[in-house]
Write a structure and sequence with these properties.
heterodimer; A: 122 residues; mainly beta; six-stranded mixed β-sheet; four-stranded antiparallel β-sheet; 0% helix; B: 109 residues; three-stranded antiparallel β-sheet; 9 strands
């Protein structure tokens, strides 16, 4: 069974840095692109970032580009995202999700992890 | 960037049919995927590629897509179907290639 477990969320001050992790199991991790999707409290889903299965291609939403770095360690079956210069409006539950293809070329997200809450507040 | 428009809410009585729309420019030329999110839970894929149901999703969930509107249909609605539903497409524009609708809250009366 495919399983995704996020960790690393918490309370951080504005301007701070946070690194989230997503441990994957149940599939050949390096064969699939992975994404981060976030959901602010009471709001909808916002795609944040994607990385190809090999790790050589990355995409970012304009809202986080320049502040966010997605990476993966295929030897550890783990996805990461580091977010710098955090703002209050980055407060959200962050989900990792498995893509359909090895490349970033469309498709859907299935499954999703349970999410980790990031709160940016002073 | 590409915009998907969903109604904020849909109300339906148990046993009836709920239809949730997702509007977008020439959306019929794109593949549309639908997710169900129950309160406090992660999203779950319920329809992919306009009308395909993943394993484990009841046949009561179906989808269609044509012109400028995609539709998720839930037949014989049950109390457990009460959730938020999001449509999603891939748009090749680099600034936001994965696009979600704002979501529709389905309330079972």
């Amino acid at each position: 069974e495919v399983h995704l477990v996020e960790s690393g969320g918490g309370l951080v001050q504005p301007g701070g840095t946070l690194r989230l992790s997503c441990a994957a199991s149940g599939f050949t991790f390096s064969n699939y692109a992975m994404s981060w999707v976030r959901q602010a409290p009471g709001e909808g889903l916002e795609w944040v970032s994607a990385i190809s299965g090999s790790g050589d291609s990355t995409y970012y939403a304009s809202s986080v580009r320049g502040r966010c770095t997605v990476s993966r360690d295929n030897s550890k079956n783990t996805l990461y995202v580091q977010m710098n210069s955090l703002r209050v409006d980055d407060t959200a539950v962050y989900y990792c999700a498995k893509g359909l293809y090895s490349g970033i070329q469309g498709g859907w997200f299935d499954p999703w992890g349970q999410g980790t809450l990031v709160t940016v507040s002073s | 960037s590409y915009v998907l428009t969903q109604p904020p809410s849909v109300s339906v009585a148990p046993g009836q049919t709920a239809r949730i729309t997702c509007g977008g420019d020439k959306i019929g030329s794109k593949s549309v995927h639908w997710y169900q999110q129950r309160p406090g839970q992660a999203p779950v894929l319920v329809v992919s590629d306009d009308s395909d149901r993943p394993s484990g999703i009841p046949e009561r969930f179906s989808g269609s897509n044509s012109g400028n509107t995609a539709t998720l249909t839930i037949s014989r609605v049950e109390a457990g179907d009460e959730a938020d539903y999001y449509c999603q497409v891939w748009d090749s524009r680099i600034d936001r290639p994965y696009v979600f609708g704002a979501g529709t809250k389905v309330t079972v009366l």
